[in-house]
Amino acid sequence: MIRIFRQLFNSQSKTITGAAFIIGLFSLISRLLGIVRDRILAGTFGAGDTLDMYYAAFRIPDLVFNLIVLGALSAGFIPVFTEYLSRKNADSDAEKPAQILEKLERAGADRRGYTEAWELASNVLNITIVALIILGGFLFLLATYLMPLITPGFSGEKIKITVTLTRIMFLSPLFLGVSSVFGGVLQSFKRFFVYSLAPVMYNIGIIIGALFLVNFFAEPVYGLALGVILGAFLHMIIQVPSTIFSGFRWKWTFNLYHEGIRKIGHLMIPRTLGLATSQINLLVITIIASTLAGGSIAVFNFANNLQSFPLGIFGISFAIASFPTLSIFASQRNFKEFIKNFSYTFRQILFFIIPTSVLLLVLRAQIVRVILGTGVFDWEDTILVAQSLGFFSFSLFAQALIFLLARSFYALQNTIIPFVAALSAVVFNIIFCLILVKPFGAPGLALAYSIAAFINMALLLIFLKIRLRDLDDKKILTSTFKIIIASFIMAVVVQAIKYVIEPFVNMQTFLGVVIQGLVAGMVGLVVFVVISLILKSPEMIGFKEKIEHKFFRIRLPFIGENGA
Predict the structure, then answer these.
(1) Residue 530: pLDDT band by 50, 70, 90 thresholds?
(2) Measuring CA to CA, how many Å separate 553 from each of 16, 25, 184, 278?
């Protein structure tokens, strides 16, 4: 049994689809736990002041984590670390990622050729820890002065509690920072199993806080904060064994002038600024929402969490899975293979995310009521969250593609363009937030966010097109057209089925809402599959063949990931 777990925890993914499947599967599990978490929070506290304080308290710790950790790791560490490993393994520029990966599998057993790469990893880890402790401690002291600026609509008591929550949560970036370095190593070795398991552990920690730790405090929200700390610790500790198995051994080295560190620093600065703009986005939303009716921050976060479910499964998973492969082809300047892998991932994301966003839009009220409609979460809360979710669904495909487009630039070691695109999006988000909250209230924040996402995606796509000229446009446009047609027909059918079922069920009950939404959604998915097959969608045909081969053992000709 131990041997099986060891093999499972240290397994490597050979293809983008295989890696995306693992990441998507655990993202699904994590998101399901996130739904459980949000249902517990909604049923216990409702969309009110308590959750407004809880979500607002995340803003400064999240800012620290995103600026110090994600900026370095997402844009700099993985490409540079992969480059160091490839130096030891690639005999020629033509060597394929699969060949390099086969050699990397021996890294855990023979570490002598990887000294520079592991020294770089230790250096990054040590710098990350020191930076987080210093900056976190500094902001810990300033929390009393910063929170009134972030939540100007909060009363004195709400501000006091939010400050305390923020200070408790400052432990979270430290654990997540260490975990992210380990995750970067595991991604570079394409060990996505444990990397993808970490977010599951994070949500488990928060659920423990929501169910049990809240009972130990007169102000239950403090138990939620401790649950966040527990989740961050579990997120870190689960990745330690596989990181060690990959060959990592910690050593004290703190060299800011190391060649690799300077290269990471060069790459991370624009990415960090880009993440800063993203955090400014959320800060502005929090500031504006705090001045609206109580619960507005919670409404935005509930809707955002719901749309993050498919976003994580279909958007982020494919983007993360493709990143190491894109980085290797970019380092080899093999742009033909780079474009083929980009096109494949782009089309796969659209194939899953467009019909999903249509279902979110058409079934938004049913989804919100079934998932969050319990306890003190009333119908008014449901309407506000459903309206916000509907606005989010319009930009779901754009948000999903942003992850792939940004990582494509990171693989090309260009972090300036994603920063410019993100900064432009933030400016438009602020403008539209101020305009749209007047007619729409809290849901207007989601609409503004969606408009900004469209702008971000469009700018990234235009600049990547300029950089590479041909993005396999014909295949992308053909596939997208077929996906849109199938999704539109599905939407019409789902809407019709809703009206057909409504007279036969009691829509005032949980079961009635579930039946209406589930039947309409399932029929809609069947229609999408049938229409896609009729249109001969390459993605649907490929998906069908993979399912048949996987579960029915039908011998089929192999369709390469770089092809259709």
Answers:
(1) very high
(2) 21, 21, 35, 46
- Report the Cα 99 to chain-centroid distance in Å: 29
In this structure, the number of other CB atoms found within 10 A of the CB of residue 47 comes to: 29
C-alpha distances (whole Å) from 46 to each of 38, 40, 42, 137, 298 are 10, 9, 4, 32, 8
Task: Give the span between the Cα atoms of 497 and 135, in whole angstroms.
Answer: 54
The per-residue DSSP string of 101-163 comes to HHHHTTTTT--GGGHHHHHHHHHHHHHHHHHHHHHHHHHHHHHHHHHHHH-TT--HHHHHHHH
Tens of pLDDT along 129-161?
898 888 888 888 988 988 888 888 888 888 999
25: tokens are 């599967």
**Domain limits of the chain?**
49-269
Q: How far apart are CA 521 and CA 490, in angstroms?
A: 9
What span, in angstroms and rounded, lies between the C-alpha atoms of 253 and 242?
22
| Number of alpha helices (DSSP H) and beta strands (DSSP E) in the chain | 25, 0
Q: What residues contact residue 32 under an 8 Å CB cut-off, 6+ apart?
A: none
Distance CA 225, CA 233 (A): 13
